[in-house]
């Protein structure tokens, strides 16, 4: 009977990793991940910001087509049907086939909230509540004033490229949020302008250009009585949000 030498079982041509070496490798991988993750998150956030701008531009194109076909009349941000149901400008655009009801009507950072009491077309980019008017854009010509939300606080319009129409919005009202909200009021606590893209908001202007604006732009808007109608409507996302 052949006996095996126990010492020959221990010897091997390959050397196993020691515990210290494994820990060093794990530490290096963890360090690389900690270095790369912020960059990857920033790239992802920038991509969502680009998609958001594209979505706002898409909705703006739909509004422009609606105006062209409807004697330059702008759809109201908020209205009611004959049954007393709330309708948004999105309902008008979708029902008239100017806009498809898909994810392009809202920011990719605020997906549709199924638990909200708001309908899908109420979870959209926020339109100024004073946008509904006739003969667009004549009331917004340079040097003219417009009745802000029917409260007789006339606001100097300036040029079309400086007057915002649609913006990144946020709704934190009980039962509604978190979601976007389609109608922006004066200094609303629940329906806010959300600086979700590097502390800026995707914005559509009256000349249908699309840009990102920071809080300074919105908080500097004054009405004829010196009021700041949007100063209290700014919301910043939490850190990392």
Characterize the structure shown.
The longest helix is centred in the first third of the chain and has 51 residues. The chain has four helices and twelve strands, in the order ααββαβββββββββαβ. About 10% of the residues have low confidence. The termini are far apart. The relative contact order is 0.13. 28% of the residues lie in helices and 16% in strands. The strands form four sheets. A five-stranded mixed β-sheet has the order 8-3-6-10-11. Strands 7-9-12 form a three-stranded mixed β-sheet. A two-stranded antiparallel sheet has the order 1-2. The protein has one domain. The protein is elongated and about 80 Å long. The protein has 241 residues and is α+β, with helices and mostly antiparallel strands.
Number of domains: 1
Radius of gyration equals: 27 Å
What is the percentage of strand-forming residues? 15-25%
Spatial strand arrangement across the major sheet: 8-3-6-10-11
Provide keyphrases for this structure.
about 240 residues, alpha+beta, five-stranded mixed beta sheet, 4 helices
What is the secondary structure topology, with strand pairs?
Layout lengths: L5 H5 L8 H51 L8 E3 L5 E3 H7 L30 E3 L16 E3 L6 E3 L7 E4 L1 E3 L11 E2 L6 E4 L6 E5 L4 E4 L1 H5 L14 E2 L6
Parallel strand pairs: 3-8, 9-12
Antiparallel strand pairs: 1-2, 3-6, 4-5, 6-10, 7-9, 10-11
């Amino acid at each position: 009977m052949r006996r095996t030498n126990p010492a020959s079982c221990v010897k091997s041509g390959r050397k196993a990793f020691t515990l210290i070496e494994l820990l060093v490798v794990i530490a290096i991988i963890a360090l690389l991940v900690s270095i790369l993750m912020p960059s990857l998150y920033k790239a992802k956030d920038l991509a969502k910001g680009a998609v958001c701008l594209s979505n706002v531009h898409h909705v703006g194109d739909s509004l422009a087509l609606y105006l062209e076909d409807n004697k330059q009349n702008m759809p109201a941000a908020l209205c009611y049907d004959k049954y007393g149901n709330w309708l948004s400008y999105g309902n008008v655009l979708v029902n008239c086939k100017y806009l498809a009801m898909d994810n392009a009507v809202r920011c990719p950072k605020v997906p549709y909230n199924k638990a909200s009491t708001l309908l899908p077309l109420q979870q959209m980019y926020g339109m100024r509540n004073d946008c509904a008017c006739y003969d667009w854009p004549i009331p917004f010509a340079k040097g003219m004033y417009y009745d802000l939300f029917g409260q007789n606080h006339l606001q100097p319009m300036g040029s079309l490229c400086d007057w915002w129409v649609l913006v990144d919005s946020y709704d934190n009202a009980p039962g509604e949020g978190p979601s976007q909200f389609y109608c922006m009021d004066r200094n609303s606590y629940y329906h806010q302008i959300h600086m979700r893209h590097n502390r800026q908001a995707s914005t559509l202007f009256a000349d249908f250009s699309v840009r990102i604006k920071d809080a300074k732009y919105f908080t500097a808007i004054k009405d004829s009585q010196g009021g700041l109608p949007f100063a209290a409507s700014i919301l910043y996302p939490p850190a990392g949000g």
